[in-house]
Amino acid sequence: MATLTNISSTNNNTNLQNSKDLQNIACNKNNDKSNPINTEIVGYGNLPKDTVSFGNTQEYENKQNKKSGLSKTQKFIVGAGLLASAIVGGIFIKGRLNNKELVKLAENIKFEPAKNIEDAKAFAKTHLGIEKFDVDNLDVANWVNEGLVFVNNKRLGKAIMPKKVAYENFDEKAMAAMNSNGTLTINKANIGDIDNLLNKSIEAMPFIRRFENGTVKISKNLQTPQLQNLLNRFCKSKDLSFCEKVELYQNIASIKDMIVLIGTKPSLTLKQLFNDKEISEQIKKAGLKYKGKPLELEEILKQNKEEQDAILTEIATSLNIKFTRKSNKFDIIVHEMGHSEHQRNCKNFQNLSKSEEQIKIGKEVSEETKEFLENENIQQTALKVSPYSTESPAEFVAETYKDLINGKTHTEDVMELYRKYEGPPV
Ligand SMILES: [Zn+2]
C-alpha cells in the first residue's frame, strides 16, 4: 500500500462508486434526514466538462450531469471554518526555563488511574515531580498524568516534565498550551466540555454525516476503522470514555487541518501525490486526463488554485485516496511536551513560532519562519509530517516529536529539517 504520511491510496481501481458516499455526504448536511443518500453531487470546481475523462465514461457522464458549481474543497473550507478549530495547542513565548530545576525521573513509571483528585495530585508530584497540579477534574487529571507517563517512558526518564499543570479557560481555539515558564495549561473551555466540542466539530465537518438514529457516515477518503468506530460509539452507543473522546476529537481535528490545507494550498498536496511512486503510477493507470492529455504535475501546477483543487478532488475521488492520519489519545500532551523539550534544546526557539504568534508579541516575523513558510521544499517536507506542521518551524518540530514518541519513523529529509531546527532528541 502506498503511504504518504497523511495520504495513502488503498484502492487501485478507479471505482467511481466509491466517491459517491463522499459526495453525498458532502453536500447534504442539511437535507432531509429520512433520505440520507441524496444523489446530488458536489461539483468539481471550474473544470470544464470535457477536460477530464475516466476509463468508465458512463459514470463520469453521470457525475458531470449532477454536478453543482461549488468545489469540494471550497465546501471543505466552508464547513471547516465553522469547526471550533482547536488545534493541538499554542505556545506562549516569554523567557526560558531554568535547566537547574530538572528532576530526575524513573525510566519507566507505571501509571495507575487515580480514584480521586488528591491521589492524582500525589501521583503527579511523586512520579513526575510536578509540584503544582491544579486540575479539578478527575478524567482530565488522569489523562494528563497518563500522557506524561507515556512521554516519560518513551524518553526513558529524560523528558522534562512541566513544573505546573493548570486547567483553565484560555484561548477558545487551543486545547492546551505550554508556557515557557514550564506550565502546561489544559484548556478547560474545550476539554472540560468535550461532548459539546465533539458535537460542534462533527456538525461542522462536511464529510461526516450524522443521522437521527445515531448512524454516522463518513466519506471514504477520510474514513479509517478507528474513526468510524469512535464516531459510531460517540453518536450511537454513547459509551466512549473521556480519553476516547479526546482521541476522536484528535482524529477530526487532523482531518480538518488536512482539508483546510488542501483548500488553501492544493499544490502542496498535488506534489505529494505525484511524488509518491505508487500513487503516480495509479494516476497513469487510471487514465485521468486534463485538457485531453494525461495528467502531468507540471501542467497542473500552472493552473490556478481552483483548477488545482478541482483536479485534486478528481484524483482523490477516483483513486479513493485516503486523507487520514492515525491519532493517539495523548497527542495533545505529547505535542506540548515537544514544544517544551524543543525550547530547552534550541537557543533560537523564539524565532521559530508561527508568524501570527510573533506579531502578537510585537515582533517582526523572523527570517526562520519566513523561510519556512516561503520555501516550497521545506513546506513539502513538513507536510510529510502533518498539515499543521507546515505552519511554523516550532509546530513542525512539535508534530515530528509527537510522531517519534508515538514510534513512527520519518524519512531522512524530515529528520534533517528536524535537526536544522534543533528538535529535541527522541
Ligand atoms: Zn503547537
Question: What this model shows, in words?
Answer:
- The chain is an alpha/beta fold and 426 residues long.
- Helix content is 50%, strand content 11%.
- The chain has helices at 17-27, 57-66, 72-82, 117-128, 138-154, 188-191, 194-204, 225-237, 242-264, 266-275, 277-286, 297-301, 305-319, 331-345, 355-360, 367-374, 376-385, 393-405, 412-420, and strands at residues 2-3, 7-9, 41-43, 67-71, 90-92, 132-134, 164-168, 176-179, 183-187, 208-210, 216-218, 289-290, 293-294, 321-323.
- The strands form 5 sheets. It has a 5-stranded mixed sheet with strand order 5-8-9-7-6. The protein has a 3-stranded antiparallel sheet with strand order 1-2-14.
- It binds zinc ion (ZN).
- Zinc ion binds next to helix 14 and helix 18.
Low-confidence stretches: 1-90, 92-100
Multimeric state: single chain
Q: Radius of gyration from the CA trace?
A: 22 Å
**Straight-line distance between termini:** 28 Å
Q: Please outline the major beta sheet.
A: 5 strands, mixed
Name the average pLDDT: 78
How many H/I helical runs? 19
Derived from helix and strand composition plus strand pairing, the structural class reads: alpha/beta
Query: How many DSSP E strands?
Result: 14
